[in-house]
Amino acid sequence: MRGCWILFILGSSVLTAMSAGCAPPDSGDGGNTNDNSSGAPTDRVGSGTARISGVVYSANAEPAIPLGGAILVLGDAVAVAKVNGAFDLFGAPAGLQPLIVDGTHLVVGDGRYGAFTSRLNVAQGEQRLLDEPVYLPFIPVSRQTTVVPEEQTVATSESGAVWTIPPGAARRGDDLYDGWVAAIDVPADRAPLPLPDDLRASIVSFLTLQPIDLAFQGGVAPRFPDEDATDADPRFQTLRELDVATGQYEDALILRRSSQAWRAISGGISRAGWFARSRTTRVRVYEPCTESGAPCVASWTDARRTVRSLRAGTVAGARATLERLARAMLDHERTVEGAQALAAAALGDFRICRENVAGMLAAYRRLDEAESLLAAIRTATDACDGDAACDAGDEPAELRAARAAQTANALVAALSDHLPRFNRLDAAFKAVSPFFDGTTLIEESSLEAFEQAVLDVLESFVAFDPLRSPADAHDELLDRLDAVHRAIDEALQSYRGPVTESASAPIHVMQVGLDQGLRARGEVLSGASELTLADQPEPSHLVAIDSSAGRCSLPRNVFTWLTENPPLDITLDRRFHKRALTGGIPAAEELSPQSPICVFQVSGVEREGANVLFTGDAGAQVGFTVDGGPLAFLSGEGFHVTNLPRGGRYDLVALSDREDAASKVRIQFDPDPAWFDFDQPVAGTFDLFRRAEIVFIEALSGETVLAEIACCGADGTAFEVGLYDPAGRRLRADERPGSGGAAPLLGFDIVENGLHRLVVRPSAAAFGDYRIVVSKAPAPQVRDIQPGEEVTLDFTVEQPAVMLRFTAASGQTAEISGLSSDNVDRVDLRVTTSEGEVIVDRAALYFDGSSFSRVRFPAARSATYLATLRAPGADAPAAGSCVLRLDLTSATP
């Protein structure tokens, strides 16, 4: 913009727009004005040609109300929302422009409004009316917590999300922050800008931490309530953070459910802002950019794992308490009474400081292994020597490799410089501790010893000068560790790229559970380099296989992999080999970290069975696949397969997740005529070599599969049963009266068409015969229902379930209400999309007029939905009926 300048300051109370020497060009709309004499912000035309219009609403009011006076900045265009909330941003420049929406200056009696910062992609000269309102959160005074720099601060949202800020961690710019902070829940359909489709479909909750310009040194790890999660729900979630540099919600933390709460596995949030919890974990897949680059990428990946294994966490509140204790020791009176007063008054700080110093020293001693990092970098550099084909960016890859080595050397130098100082400080604390904990009394006879011990502590503090304090030295080391991590990532990026081209065979990314089989999977197709894995229970492994290129990733334990801070990625940097396996003839193979997978190719006839015998070292497992697809089953022991599906090619995939040693495996495939049909028994014996039975079955959405199982001469506690759909999801089971006495009968509602697998495993100490009978109940009748329509459903022994089909648009909320019933106490409700995505998993719907007689759920996207209703008592002789109604409501505009 010629002849003028604009300064935007986003603070705790107001965003100020100041200008000098320029007047906005005439927009053709009389609503634009210059700055007024009071200096209050007004509309200002930017240097571009686009016009972006919309309306600002309050996110928390019911119903939503317009928010006049909110300030919007897009690039260098400024607008102030009118009384009705409407705004026009004239002259917005083209490109990905910074967007600021600020309401912090709008203060009402019981609170104030917040702010939002993002990015908006603007086209040259476009005239855009935003489809949805821009929402700002209201921050009531009751939710505002004052930050005291020397103390721990806790901000709690209305839903129970807890953000614990350590002493001295909150900063605004370079200064300690001592203002208010608040955690505010926001409805997901009232995000400031619409959420991306993948996040809308997986979102659990949405919230903001205000003011948004706060930074947290060392990071803050929030905690969320578990919201009555069940064992069948995923154990992991992702906290996604709005990146103000890109306008995208990026993965920030992995949350794990434990002790009635969702907690961060590792890491923390470095800034306040906007956050969404997602049920899914996204994975980025990379491959070497050249065939010769594969060993190079593998070496750099190993170096990266080495630096992550050296992870040293921050020590919360160290700086404030260490400095306060040093001042107290320096200023105390040199008398017995003064020494006793110091020991009494500073006891709390002393204990915290002693723990802090111990934590810092432990971090330093863990980093003694940094020499192994230098060795890993040298190995990677040697592996990449002379390969310049993968150079990315303006800087040759070998220069990035050299910088990684220099950064690692700087880390080792800092370690050797600071570790003796921490040893001295630790020794000084140990020497003075008896005077603080009362083991040694401070008297005339011991005053001199106390004074010397205090002097030693003070001198050990001074030894860190000019670093100012041990906390600064510790943080410097962590910064150097982060720098090494970044340098290795830059070097690694030179030799790899995201998978963006379609392969002749799909690249399978699988999360497989030991003794359970496939948990979740994805395929890298053309133009896709980011995958979503949903359910993450343990124990399980993550592995990617590109059959066409003969490459795979190093299988990783999922929990270990998740402890690495997002973005999470895997690299196809290992080789696997294939070999034919003849039925009945054993084969042996050695799996190494550089070649961790061997694919044994076998063949079979449709509906045959097979016994798989497997032995291997620790860390080795064997999986079963069909026609080159994803692993259908993974086990560390032998198993039996009934009803080999689709006939043709079957692969036994032996893999090892040992990162530093080889594993030897021995495998044998023995076909047998284990014919299968519904209602026909499947029988066998569990022993040392057969520890699972897998029955493949074809089933259709809406059907119910029944499994009657007897095992090992005992009741149902002697074995475990799971039915998995084609995507690897474990279906929920209903226990029903069995026809075989003690043998339980389990019912599974089928959601998705395709090949399912029933897995039966004995308990650890169980052996003996098993008998499995699989049958099908008829598919429920499907009825179409319109919004507002009341329908009567009849349940019988032959038809215990009814399916309702309806269409809902994205952003709508559906409500199914139970109005009345005859001989039906309740119905169990399950809602899916027509593609099989589960929206509501087994909710109970009653008919008593209470809140339990209504089930509400959001439509994450426009689709056809299927609601399956089952009467639990319908298998009794008496039939029953009920009356239901469907209502659809749209989100408040």
Concise overview:
By secondary structure, the protein is α+β, with helices and mostly antiparallel strands. The longest helix is centred in the middle third of the chain and has 41 residues, at 397-437. It starts with 5 loop residues before the first strand and ends with a strand.
Feature tags:
alpha+beta, 10 helices, 41% strand, globular, disordered N terminus
Please give a structural write-up.
- The protein has 893 residues and is an alpha+beta fold.
- 19% of the residues lie in helices and 41% in strands.
- It is built from ten helices and 62 strands.
- The strands form 13 sheets. Strands 30, 31, 33, 34, 35, 37, 39, 41, 42 and 44 form a ten-stranded mixed β-sheet that branches. It has an eight-stranded antiparallel β-sheet with strand order 14-19-20-27-23-24-25-22. A seven-stranded mixed β-sheet has the order 38-45-40-43-47-52-49, with no helix packed on it.
- Helix 3 packs across helix 5 (347-366), helix 5 (347-366) packs antiparallel against helix 7 and helix 7 (397-437) runs antiparallel to helix 8 (444-462).
- The longest helix is centred in the middle third of the chain and has 41 residues, at 397-437.
- The radius of gyration is 32 Å and the shape is globular.
- The protein starts with 5 loop residues before the first strand and ends with a strand.
